[in-house]
UniProtKB/TrEMBL annotation:
UniProt GO molecular function: 3-oxoacyl-[acyl-carrier-protein] reductase (NADPH) activity
Protein name (Swiss-Prot/TrEMBL): Short chain dehydrogenase
Keyword check for Transcription regulation: no
The protein's Enzyme Commission number: 1.1.1.100
InterPro entries: NAD(P)-bd_dom_sf, SDR_enzymes, SDR_fam
Pfam families: adh_short
KW Cell wall biogenesis/degradation (keyword) present: no
Keywords, in A-Z order: Oxidoreductase
Length: 256
């Protein structure tokens, strides 16, 4: 019997998603990794990884496009009948450091579509595949920026923050809805991570703040490899007690 599991990771052509895909391929040659990219042809690093790993499958997916989400079923059918772990990682933080009053409709819509509604619709599409396995783990990569209890006025990230608050709510709601079916659904903050996007964002925040806050942010920074390693440990160790929780990458519970 195989010891491997099947992992579906959205937004895996770069950043945390890419490192997670790489991590699972290295962790066990029996793992199957289903990694999505909006533009597979230009996902160079992922394509290079696929050349060396026949158990890596690259799927085309734009989570802001319903037709693209619907196409996941036909893309998956020939590869696998089941998925053990769904990591909803794809997300944007697009010029998001606005305030409630200054953020236009288009920015609220964009963040909600990619960071909240897209992951929900993708979960709906993957549900039949997750029910085929006993593992049934669903991990929404969220952000501490979505924690209402930890709201920090020093970092106004309103449309991004709202979209991740919504995602946290969905983890709680889906966890409750599907607990009796054996699902474990969580939201997780992956850390302050030095991906290209993370570094750019935190440099912008630091430029607007004082040395003390900037030094604090620097002290929190971890690499994408470290984040992926922490996340995979957390995902491996998930049990039903964690269902519906919002966790830090190191496993500590975060307040909603
Ligand atoms: N980095 C941090 O410090 C940090 C902190 C808290 C939370 N997070 C969360 O962690 C996750 C990954 O962050 P990251 O730093 O690795 O970001 P990243 O390097 O910008 O990567 C984001 C990934 O999401 C994909 N993506 C964006 N829009 C998409 C769409 N409409 N459909 C499908 N895929 C899409 C991107 O694809 P393309 O290459 O095609 O754009 C890319 O693969 C995000 O959900 C983010 O909010 C990150």
């Amino acid at each position: 019997m195989t010891t491997g599991k099947t992992y579906f990771i959205s937004g895996a052509n770069r950043g945390i998603g890419f490192e997670l895909a790489k991590h699972y391929l290295e962790a066990n040659p029996d793992n199957i990794v289903l990694a999505t990219a909006r533009f597979p042809a230009s996902a160079t690093a992922l394509n290079e990884l696929a050349v060396k790993n026949s158990n890596l499958h690259i799927l085309k997916l734009d989570v802001s496009d319903e037709a693209s989400i619907a196409s996941i079923d036909s893309q998956l059918k020939d590869i696998t009948d089941g998925v053990d772990v769904f990591v909803s990682n794809a997300g944007i933080f697009s010029e998001s450091r606005g305030t409630v009053l200054s953020t236009p409709a288009e920015k609220w819509d964009k963040h909600l579509k990619v960071n909240t509604v897209g992951p929900i619709l993708l979960f709906q599409a993957l549900y039949p595949y997750l029910t085929k396995r006993v593992t049934k783990k669903v991990v929404f990569i969220s952000s501490v920026a979505g924690s209402v209890a930890s709201f920090n006025p020093a970092f106004p990230t309103d449309s991004y923050g709202l979209s991740k608050t919504g995602l946290n709510f969905i983890a709680k709601a889906a966890g409750a809805e599907l607990a009796s079916e054996g699902f474990i659904v969580i939201a997780v903050h992956p850390g302050v991570v030095s991906t290209e996007r993370g570094t750019k964002t935190f440099d912008e925040i630091k430029a607007d703040t004082n040395d003390e806050v900037a030094a604090f942010l620097d002290s929190l920074m971890i690499t994408p490899e470290e984040s992926a390693s922490f996340l995979s440990k957390l995902i491996d160790e998930l049990n039903e007690e964690k269902n519906g929780s919002f966790l830090n990458y190191d496993g500590k519970t975060l307040p909603y």
